[in-house]
Amino acid sequence: MSVTTGLSAVSSQVRRQYHFVYDWKNMPEAQKYCREKYTDLATIDNMEDVKMLNNTVDRSKVSEYFWIGLYDDVNSWRWSLSDTSFYRDGETEFRLWKTGQPNNANSSQYCTGMYDGQWEDFDCESHFKSVCMDVRGLNVTFVLITTLMNWTEAQSYCREHHTDLASVRNTAENQQVNDTVPAGQKAWIGLFRDSWKWSDGSSSSFRHWYERQPDNSDGKDACVTSDFGRDGKWWDDVCDKKRPFICYIAMTTKQVIKVRLETKDSSLDLNDPAVMEQMLKEVQQRLKDQGVKGDVKLSWRKQADGKVFHEEEEETKKKKKTRRKRDEI
């Protein structure tokens, strides 16, 4: 039995069409504008994007700082132990920061340590002692680890030998943790946050910082500008400042391919949703095996009668056989 259908392939490996907006807005206003008029604030993936933007900007209007979509997620603090059953209402939000903390000094402090009973944000690569916890039902005990480690190493150690890095849910537990740490010494606890993110949720890790950037010189530089007076290099900046900005429109590619299938099992219903889903998975896997990059979404194309597959007419099959024989001759 031979059947034909259309296979729709949509590539979500986004190509971006950038748009410079020369109205002056702060970053949240610019983000809102881009999401309403375009797709989002600009995500920049590589040096080709940087070169294209450098060649496109109208320097007779503005030549320097334009908002792009990168920002520092300063409000994303969360605990290493994510099990929600471990926390009562409000306990995941308990904080005991030292005055002036967290301050994200040098724009590089995403992890939390305890120092004389109060919390400070530190560079995650710093080497401190750490406090692990053992959770047994309702009982929690805290254990000081004296080996100096960075935060990620401490997290891995605690998860391997205990339950996790210490979560501190209330003032009583804060006192228990503090009692394990020698006076005047620092120790990691399990609170951490995300660093730089793109407004559209992209996972792009490309960065194009200017020298000694980011530095959080104003103490609240959580947004990013591209400076076309310096070849599009990036600077961290205060989000409330008014700047021009760059939006983008996502351009995706869609292609419909005619597919002809042959099956020896005439009882197999190719229009069965489960069968169609399995075939899509197999095609998707073959694309990956052949090195096709990007997130390609596949779907079957329904025809006018609502069906996907239609058996070929006998006359059509005869013509194809005749054509094959001629090709062989």
TrEMBL record:
Chain intervals for the UniProt region annotation (Disordered): 307-329
Domain (C-type lectin): give its ranges: 18-133, 142-248
Q: Which UniProt keywords apply?
A: Disulfide bond
Would I find Manganese among this entry's keywords?
no
Basic residues composition bias: which ranges? 318-329
Superkingdom is Eukaryota
InterPro entries in UniProt = C-type_lectin-like, C-type_lectin-like/link_sf, C-type_lectin_CS, CTDL_fold
* Pfam families (alphabetical): Lectin_C
| Name used for this protein in its record | C-type lectin domain-containing protein
